[in-house]
Amino acid sequence: MQKKKRHIFLKLDAWLDSTLWNTGFQAAEFWEETTIFFRRFRMRGWKKWLFEALGEAMTLGTVGAVAMLALAMPAFQETVKDWRNRGDFAVTFLDRYGNVIGHRGIIHENSVPFEDLPDNLIKAVLATEDRRFFDHFGIDFIGLGRALSENARAGGVVQGGSTLTQQLAKNLFLTNERSIERKIKEAFLSLWLEANLSKQEILSLYLDRAYMGGGTFGAAAASQFYFGKSVRDVNLAEAAMLAGLFKAPAKYAPHVNLPAARGRANEVLSNLVQSGFMSEGQVIAARRNPATVVDRAEREAPDFFLDWAFDEVQRVAARFPEHSLIVRTTIDPGLQKVAETAVSNTLREYGEQYNVKQAALVTLENGGAVRAMVGGRDYGESQFNRATRGLRQPGSSFKIYTYAVAMEAGLTPETTIVDGPVNWGNWSPHNYGNSYAGRITLTTALAKSINTVPVRLVKDRLGVVSVIRMAKAMGVETPIRKDVTIPLGTSEVTVMDQATAYAVLPSGGLQSRRHGIVDIRDYRGHVLYDFDRDEPAPRRVLTEQADNYMNQMLTKVPYIGTGRKAALDGILTAGKSGTTQAYRDAWFVGFTGNFTTAVWFGNDDYTSTNNMTGGSLPAMTFKTIMDYAHQGVAVRPIPGVLEPATIAVKAPAPAKGEPKGTAPAPTPPEFVRPRTLSVETTALLRQISTMLTDAEPLAPGLRAALD
């Protein structure tokens, strides 16, 4: 039996040996034959280099395509939603005094079927925005090459390379951020749109969704706004003016700059001739008789606020069967105008000096009502709301959360701690200027924006989690990274986050119920939602003592600390500046007993400013807005601060060459609040008017007796 087993194993061994040898022999023969076959394709000289280059190009192209697809994939998540549905809400917005300030959603008779759009408008848009629209597949390489050639010849950007489909993809799914990643997403999404929609549907959506200036979206709404007529009835001159708005609605809006709008319309007429859509004889009448517009010079909608408020309306009113609504908001039109002017003037006057191009701010009345919001320099150029959606590092303005936790833990403003070198793992934070003061009070540390003190507090006593928990409790809604650098404000937040959180302090430690809606009514006048009635009462966030301590410390910043340019004349001011690494962001967030304002300056592409700190432009802008906000208002005290409300502020030194004793320049008229009735008085007068309207008429005999 054993001999038989040995025989079987010997046979198996012999079979394996022969099989392996035969396999190797056949493989060698195959390789030799293959080598001989490919020798006939062997190339030398320039052919060899050409084919090697093509091979490398194919390899790199494949890798690049995979990388671009990986970058574009997140954008396709937007297409999963019901992206066609803009919502069936039709909302008319009123300011806090009951005046109409704008519309959002589907404006009645706003959407026009494609077949009803005038031929003149379609030709004008295609001639100006995308002449090869019906010939390309979403990306026009011929048009892109022509644009590059024209721009190179002109020495600047005179012609864009994006197709109409790419512009629609940006309007529907993306922001106006200028980056390679955004362009890649835009290209892939344009291919997706071309694959899922007809050319007529794409063009119709483009004409219905694009921003056209004046707070209008779509050609139909713009036609009503600028010309007071349906888009079906526009003539060639008006169609040319509408088509010219797509490039830069803020620059060419006719109610803002009619000469520029007519000049742009003339360019559109030339495009119609150059593209072959019309002859010069067909457009000559439109050149000689340019479009005239309805006078809208006085209407300037707070568009950034309206976009945010519309989102709030959709959230609150989703459960209501009625979606045609009238919404009274919290916005103060006078303060809003001052805020927009302050940002615009500051960027125009100091933007080049500080290399800063954008700013955002939010002003809350203590309690949470949004009184002003600026989401960027120009809504026409970019509808991205930097006040509510822009995530930026807050720098030292984030330190209040560490100090609030410290006050809750039993420390006081007079508690001393060492300002000296501190190490946390492999991180060693430094103070501005790389100097140390030794043992100092927490008040001094906060006022002077010492970096080592909050880091030492969190490292040795408080912990990162408690700081994150405090920030959330005070109103920061943006997710915060759990990181040892948190005490110095390295985790991004929004301007709205900071305004909401700081507003807790002048409210006595109670939650700031941030809101932009006072009430919502249907068109029959029925109140569907009332903020005071339907929202819960504010909860306590800080103990009264901790809140008092925080206010006592923060009121020192504008007088002995980094925020001296923010101090209001005669009104006690508190706040904190913030400046991030490489001067990318500059903040000032502060408050009085009445209002809280958060201000941010920076650049969308995160490039550094020219040494701009939170105590410079942000503090100056804060002061301009808050000075106006307090005109004609009874000043409230800041809780826990015993100093009198009137603070002696040192007058600014006279300018060079100006004699001493010269009276300060008067406040510009645009920064003087007009005399108006209070909200309470306005509401009372409305109530009296309603009662008189509803009252029964007097009997004839009684009327005669009274006479």
UniProtKB/TrEMBL annotation:
The keyword Glycosyltransferase applies. Residues 652-672 are annotated as: Disordered. It catalyses: [GlcNAc-(1->4)-Mur2Ac(oyl-L-Ala-gamma-D-Glu-L-Lys-D-Ala-D-Ala)](n)-di-trans,octa-cis-undecaprenyl diphosphate + beta-D-GlcNAc-(1->4)-Mur2Ac(oyl-L-Ala-gamma-D-Glu-L-Lys-D-Ala-D-Ala)-di-trans,octa-cis-undecaprenyl diphosphate = [GlcNAc-(1->4)-Mur2Ac(oyl-L-Ala-gamma-D-Glu-L-Lys-D-Ala-D-Ala)](n+1)-di-trans,octa-cis-undecaprenyl diphosphate + di-trans,octa-cis-undecaprenyl diphosphate + H(+); Preferential cleavage: (Ac)2-L-Lys-D-Ala-|-D-Ala. Also transpeptidation of peptidyl-alanyl moieties that are N-acyl substituents of D-alanine. Keywords: Carboxypeptidase, Cell shape, Cell wall biogenesis/degradation, Glycosyltransferase, Hydrolase, Membrane, Multifunctional enzyme, Peptidoglycan synthesis, Protease, Transferase, Transmembrane, Transmembrane helix. It holds the Pfam family Transgly. Residues 108-272 form the Glycosyl transferase family domain. Pathway: Cell wall biogenesis; peptidoglycan biosynthesis. The chain crosses the membrane at residues 49-76. GO terms for biological process: cell wall organization; peptidoglycan biosynthetic process; proteolysis; regulation of cell shape. GO terms for cellular component: outer membrane-bounded periplasmic space. Residues 360-627 form the Penicillin-binding protein transpeptidase domain. It comes from the Bacteria. One of its GO terms (molecular function) is peptidoglycan glycosyltransferase activity. In the C-terminal section; belongs to the transpeptidase family. This is PBP1A family penicillin-binding protein. It comes from Agrobacterium vitis.
